[in-house]
Structures are given as C-alpha cells and as structure tokens.
What we know:
alpha+beta; eleven-stranded mixed beta sheet; five-stranded mixed beta sheet; 9 helices
Amino acid sequence: xxxxxxxxFSSLAxxxxxxxxxxxxxxxxxxxxxxxxxxxxxxxxxDSQGDNVPFASGAFPLIVFGHGFGMSWTEYSVWWxxxxxxxxxxxxPTTEASVxxxxxxxxxxxxxxxxxxxxxxxxxxxxxxFLNKFTxxxxxxxxxxxxxxxxxxxxxxxxxxxxxxxLAAADTDPSAISAAANIDVPVLTIAGSADCVVMDxxxxxxxxxxxxxxxxKAYVSITDAxxxxxxxxxxxxxxxxxxxxxxFLSDTDQHTQMFLNAxxxxxxxxxxxxxxxxxxxxxxxxxxxxxxxxxxSLPIPNLSLGxxxxxxxxxxxxxxxxxxxxxxxxxxxxxxxxxLPASVADSIMATIGGEYTLFLENADGQDISVSQTxxxxxxxxxxxxxxxxxxxxxxxxxxxxxxxxxxxxAEPIPGANxxxxxxxxxxxxxxxxxxxxxxxxCTNISNEIGVLFPSIFTPGASFGFEMYPTMTSDYLYLELxxxxxxxxxxxIYNYAGQKIDGVDGIISxxxxxxxxxxxxxxxxxxxxxxxxxxxxxxxxxxx
Length: 543
C-alpha cells in the first residue's frame, strides 16, 4: 500500500451550525492489482479549517462520492460543506474526469470500490494520517455518471458499504441497471422531475426498478429539480451545456430538498440515529416537494455472540461481547427472561449463571435475538494442617482434577505440586499455604501455617529451657531447667531486632512461665532468657 500527500489550497466554506470545521488532504492511492494510481480529494472533520490540518478527535463514517461526466470534484463543495461539518469523511476520486478520451465507467466504479477498502486499511496503518479515524461504516454516493458507477462499485465490484445514494444517476457501460440487481444493501435513488439529461422516467427509475425488493429501497423525484444542480455546476460547464431545458427550482431550494432526503438516510445507516429515520419517513410521506416510491424492508442487524458455553468461577464474572452489523433502535439484555440493566448493546458483564439473551430492534420494529449460556462453577475449598513435620491437606471440596502449588513466604516453591510438603526437607521456614485449582480453572487458597525450625543460642550458658507450642495464637509456655538457683528476665524481639514491649516476664529455677502473646501481630519472633548464667534464644511464630 502506498499513498502520497500533496498540498492543495482551497477555499472551504462552513455552515453556521457546523459541529466541525473542514480539513482537506489530497492523496494518491495506488491499486497495485491494476497498476493504477487513484488521485483522491478527502475532506474530513477538523478543529480548524484548512489543508492538511489535524483531524478532530473521534472516528467518522466514510462516504466515497463519484463525480458526473466531465465534472470536477469542486462542483460538489455543497456536499462536503454540509456533511463534513456534521461528522462525515468524504473522498472524491478525480479519475475519469475527461470528456475526451471518453471515461471508463468500469475503471471508475472499481476506483470507488478500491477507495473504500483502502481507506479501511489506512484506518489500521500506524503510518497513515487516517489511523483510527473511520468507524467502518461506509456509503457510496455519486451524481450522474458517478451515480451510475456507485451501483457498479456496490453491485459488481463488492464495495464494503452499508448503503448507496445516487443523484440523477446515469446508466453506464457496464450497465448500472444490471449491477443494481446484485446490490444487497438499502439504496436511496434521488432524481429531478425537470431533469432533461438522464430524464426522471429514464435511467434513475430503471436503476431503481432493477434493484431487488428484499432490502429497503426508496425513489424520490424532487419536483422541478434539474440534473446539474445536485452539485453546483456553473453556467457554461459541461453539465449545463448538456441540459437544454429550463424551469428549474432555484439552486438553494434544490439543495434543501436533496439534503432533507439524503442526510437523515445517512444518519440512520451510518450513525445509527433512529430519530433521523423518523425524520426521513416523515419527509418522504408528508412533503409536497417530491413524489416517491418505496419497497422492501429495512435490514435486520447481523447479530452474534461468542460460541459455546462460558464457565465462570463462583464470585467471578465474564464480559459477553456481541458483534452487531447494521443499525438498530432498541436493545435489551436479559438472563433467563429477567431484564438486566445495560447501557450498551454490544457488551454486558455476566455475574450469575443462566442464559443471556440480547434483543435488537430496527427502526421498522423488526427484531432479532441471540443467546449464550453462562455456567457458574464452584471454587475449591481447601484446609491444611501440620502433622509430624508434614503440612498436608485435611479437607478439599469443590471440583475434581485438582492441581496444587505450595507457597512459602508468599513465593511459589518450585516443584511443590503434591498434596503435602515437608518444610524440613525443603529447608524453608516461614508461612506456608496451598493454592488449589480445579478442572474449571477456579482457584482458592488454603489457611496459613507457620513453620520455625528449633534453635538455641548458648554463649556459655549452663542452663536450658523448653518452649511450647512453637506456633501459637494466644499463649506460650516456658519451662526452665538448671542445676543451680537461677532467675532470669524474659524478653521478646521481632525479626528486625526490636524489643517488644508488654510481654516481659521473670522465670525462676525449674519454674514455668505462661506468656500471653495474643496481641502480637502475625509473624516470627525471638524469645530470649537473659541472666547471669548467659543468654538463651528460641524462635516462635504467632499465627
């Protein structure tokens, strides 16, 4: 993929009620499969008016607009001024603009289809100025020859679009009338009753009749509208030289009527604005400024959820994502028939088990729904105990096919993946716990057990003491043994060497001291007996 940006200065007018200003870039897109360069003028929403100015924030629908025979893209400024300012990107291919040699309709239709695909590629290209600027909602539009070629692009060349709008469309070679039968998206055909170039009763209605009747289609003939003023063709232009008749609407009135039909149509199909579909139908049925025909039904959105059943663990959740292609006006999420509060249609957080259903409705009240089942699986429940220097499972429920991982001091023990562990074989003291995972991937953590290895520091001491239990949550029992009269202080330190206040005591010869350590924080401590005979130190763990 290659594209080249050149600078083209132009005068860009803005509407007084514009949401955005109009930016402009000139591109040359390369269709390598046809060895063909496609110069393209692109107008886009911006925060400031001008050429090559930065985009406004957000992403926008794309319209590829085909010009008429012998006409320049500049003769359609009324369209970019109206639509870009309201949040659309419009791309005008400038190929096949000559009168002699006669333009190739097939090439022009392929150019229009290629621009749609290429700009969607540019939407993902990190080096593109159009990165993430498209919503992937696209339309084809065109006037006269370009209107006919929009049918070729959609019907014969597979352009990826949501809708087509033609303005006084001319038949083409290959035939736009034949291509219309292949189009499977809604189509709006706009014509002028005073058109003496393609004639109201000629190509536009023939193309309309050539469309299928499954998808919605509408034909609007604006009373007294001309052929050339679907743009801003000036007197003496190629278009006006071919329009040898008169009695037309004013340019302003014709533009007003074409926008009253085209803008709400685009807003519905490209922006999912259901109120604008109501506006379109109200104008279609009630306006005296045109005659109309319609047939077919609005497409029901394509809708899908993930395949298969989703398992979630008790207390966990899972996000369900819906793929929605096409406009919709109402939606509802439910689980087992109970409506759920939801702010968006394309996703919902599943927190309980059941059948989750998404219901969508289009602007005509036609609906579609899709469901996915969520099962809540149990978490394992595990308890461990310390027996004969072994830490092992004492209770395990909640699933089958368990896997195990033992931890010491919050670090996984490599290779400790059985139902028990021997701290003395590992040579690791501290806090042990077990993480158990069942066949559903649900995980739980056991209770903790502290392990300290026996240790005595005897710098010349001629006495000793017993301490039990070495792991306690409330009381320590100390028993001194010595052959001589002896009395000693009892001092407790934490592992940082800081003396712990509030647990001092005195132990006498062959005496037993009971210490209340329930107020200590969980962790390992040192208990020291200090006296004239020397110092003895042991470890204990406060559970």
